[in-house]
From TrEMBL:
Subcellular location, principal: plastid
Organism: Brassica carinata (Ethiopian mustard)
Transmembrane domains' residue ranges: 71-92, 104-121, 168-187, 231-249
Top-level division of the source organism's lineage: Eukaryota
Molecular functions per Gene Ontology: phytol kinase activity
Top-level class of the enzyme under EC nomenclature: transferase
Cell membrane as UniProt keyword: no
Protein name as annotated: phytol kinase
Length: 304
């Protein structure tokens, strides 16, 4: 961790005003959210426990800042998730879009918007668990409705194929578990988790839409899937992965070697696409096989 330099009183005040939210969320290498003089460090500021170790006077001040920040971010993302499902249920009910397309758009948007929301959480090492709380709550919601304890037609209409509650316990549940794994085990300082979401949400989601529309040429070893669907998954999954890596690099969370990153992402996208094309859907859901294959390939390719 590079030595930090105290700022002038004016700069300190400006930093205090802004760092409550934006700095420790959007530019983690800058100000630390503390009541004492703001510091500009060259590298990330680390967790609240690291701050307390370096600055005993900080103690609970930073922790309280982080806690309030992460609780607010969690409430915001939970609200976004609820609103997204409600929006598509409304569009389906009013016949603006067909139910099948609505479900696929929820499939594509939920996970990608979740991955894009990670920077609004604090710089604390515990922030990932607050973010993971969102898929956890949605997973519990899926289980409660899937077991028809209290069936919520909005959810069932928005994320099932045939409107049967028990469908919630398969693809959708595996889907939110994949989001939880990406947040907890990989988070915003690893390319692996975000690429797995890009392939599962963006790639696999687009494969369904393009495959149904243009998929006349079927894959020889799997007549239920088409070349158009798989090619779409590879292309969209690749570019969405690159987009997420660029987004997190520009915010200072990742430092990619772009000379090799494009090739590495292309290889990972190819692996994920090949796995998705296999005739194994009856044995293992795509929302398990695609993220697992992507995580394995990305971790071997990037090393973290
Ligand atoms: C329809 C879904 C999965 C079905 O997959 P498949 O069977 O078609 O392969 C997606 C289910 C989404 C879930 C109900 C809501 C998940 C919300 C997410 C955890 C957080 C999104 C936050 C963001 C800010 C909107
Ligand atoms: N590689 C692919 C993937 C899906 N698809 C089309 O999308 C439909 C749904 O795909 P899927 O069984 O993977 O659906 P999900 O499990 O992703 O919801 C398939 O029945 C195909 O018509 C395709 O043509 N090619």
């Amino acid at each position: 961790m590079a030595a930090a330099l105290p700022l002038s009183p004016v700069s300190h005040q400006l930093c205090r005003i802004s760092n409550r939210f934006w700095y420790n969320a959007m530019t983690p290498r800058f100000c630390s959210p503390v009541s004492s003089p703001c510091y500009i460090g060259v590298k990330g500021i680390g967790s609240s426990s690291q701050l307390r170790a370096r600055h005993p006077l900080i103690s609970s001040a930073a922790s309280t800042d982080y806690l309030l920040h992460d609780v607010g971010a969690t409430v915001a993302v939970l609200s976004g998730a609820y609103a997204l499902v409600l929006l598509f249920e409304s569009l389906t009910k009013r016949d603006v879009i067909p139910q099948r397309l609505s479900r696929k758009l929820v499939h594509i948007l939920s996970g990608l918007l979740f991955a894009l929301s990670w920077p609004i959480f604090s710089a604390s090492t515990e922030a990932r668990y607050f973010a993971a709380f969102v898929p956890l709550v949605n997973g519990l919601r899926l289980v409660v409705n899937g077991l028809s304890v209290s069936p919520n037609s909005t959810l069932i209409q928005s994320v099932t194929r045939e409107g049967r509650p028990e469908e919630l316990l398969k693809g959708p549940l595996f889907y939110v578990l994949a989001l939880l794994v990406a947040a907890v085990f990989f988070w915003r300082d690893s390319p692996t988790g975000m690429i797995s979401l890009a392939m599962m949400c963006g790639g696999d989601g687009i494969a369904d839409i393009m495959g149904r529309k243009y998929g006349s040429y079927k894959i020889p070893y799997n007549p239920r899937k088409s070349l158009a669907g798989s090619i779409s998954m590879f292309i969209f999954g690749f570019f969405i992965s690159i987009g997420l890596l660029y987004y997190y690099s520009s915010l200072g969370y990742l430092h990619m070697n772009w000379e090799t990153t494009f090739t590495r992402v292309a290889i990972v996208s190819l692996v994920a696409t090949l796995v998705e094309s296999l005739p194994i859907t009856d044995q293992i859901d795509d929302n398990v096989s695609v993220p697992l294959a992507t995580i394995l390939a990305a971790y071997l390719s990037f090393g973290y």
